[in-house]
Specification:
The chain is built from six helices and 18 strands. It has about 300 residues and is an alpha+beta fold. The chain has a single domain, classed as Double-stranded beta-helix (4-Layer Sandwich). Pfam families: TauD. This is TauD/TfdA family dioxygenase.
Length: about 300
């Protein structure tokens, strides 16, 4: 979608403005003070903007505390309790801190990989609400527009991707057995179509990321080659949105048509983020079949 298409969206009611950030997507929303009591009309307008932009950014939301942030997430659906949330058992809020993990606790402690949160579940979260509480001068976050990436595939590759199913696992996230509780170390795996059909827009998007482990029916080597081919295409600069954080910023993104990546260039400086995920439904592939849990 072009920059003009973003800026001219019909979701621009007089009460707020949506400004395109890049040609790949991402929009800055101006004139909105987020809180859990937003009107139905406002929520509908924001959801329409989200579907078009894939990621919405809100500056100067320092007034949000953790409870109110969870209420904001609840405007878009049911808050989701992440099964691997360390120290957050039974809670929808996850605190992402620069000192939460050590290198021995997690293979990618700072989310510096392209990923879709919870994609090892058959019904992975559909929306995320992330707020910056403490931010260093560096440590941007990137999002890739996976719907645009799909549309820009060569036609033979689109036809191939439409037929592929991929096993996603939380194996890359698991700590050694003695580093976490039994619940946190639980193994999850789901079989997803590589191309999913968005339940609201009907757009097709590529569902991959670092949790994608193997293509169903192919060898490990064949899988690795094809996953790398499609994932590299997703990561092309023209598909990517970049955001430089300020304290109080909020990002809301549609995980059904995006991946995200934290740039790990802030060293030992403190970085504290709060994230709430919203429950999703099992994706549907081009052939009409839904994702399934493997275990």
């Amino acid at each position: 979608m072009s920059r003009r298409a973003f800026s001219d969206m019909a979701v621009n009611p007089p009460r707020f403005r949506v400004r395109a950030l890049t040609g790949a997507g991402g929009c800055v929303v101006e004139g909105v003070r987020l809180h859990g009591g937003l009107s139905t009309d406002m929520v509908d307008a924001l959801n329409s903007a989200l579907l078009s932009c894939k990621v919405l950014f809100f500056r100067d939301q320092q007034h949000l505390d953790s409870d109110e942030q969870e209420r904001v997430a609840a405007l878009f659906g049911v808050p989701f309790t992440h099964p691997n949330a360390l120290g957050n058992s039974g809670a929808a809020m996850l605190i992402l801190s620069s000192d939460t993990f050590s290198e021995t606790d997690n293979k990618h402690p700072r989310n510096d990989v392209w990923h879709v949160d919870g994609a090892y579940l058959d019904a992975y979260p559909k929306i995320a609400v992330l707020q910056a509480v403490v931010v260093p001068p560096f440590g941007d976050t990137l999002w890739a527009n996976t719907a645009t990436a799909y549309r820009r595939l060569a036609e033979p590759l689109r036809r191939l991707a439409d037929r592929l199913w991929v096993r996603h696992s939380n194996a890359p996230c698991l700590a050694p057995p003695d580093a976490r509780t039994a619940a946190a170390a639980a193994r999850f795996e789901a079989l997803h179509p590589m191309v999913i059909v968005h339940p609201e827009t009907r757009e097709r998007s590529l569902l991959l990321g670092n949790l994608a482990q193997r293509i169903d029916g192919l060898s490990a080597r064949e899988s690795a080659v094809l996953i790398d081919l499609f994932q590299s295409h997703i990561e092309r600069p023209e598909h990517v949105i970049r955001w430089s954080w300020r304290e109080g910023d909020v990002a809301i993104w549609d995980a059904r048509s995006s991946q995200n990546f934290t740039v790990d260039d802030y060293g030992e400086q403190e970085r504290l983020m709060r994230r709430v995920l919203v429950k999703g439904e099992a994706p549907i592939g081009v052939d009409g079949r839904r994702s399934v849990a493997v275990y």
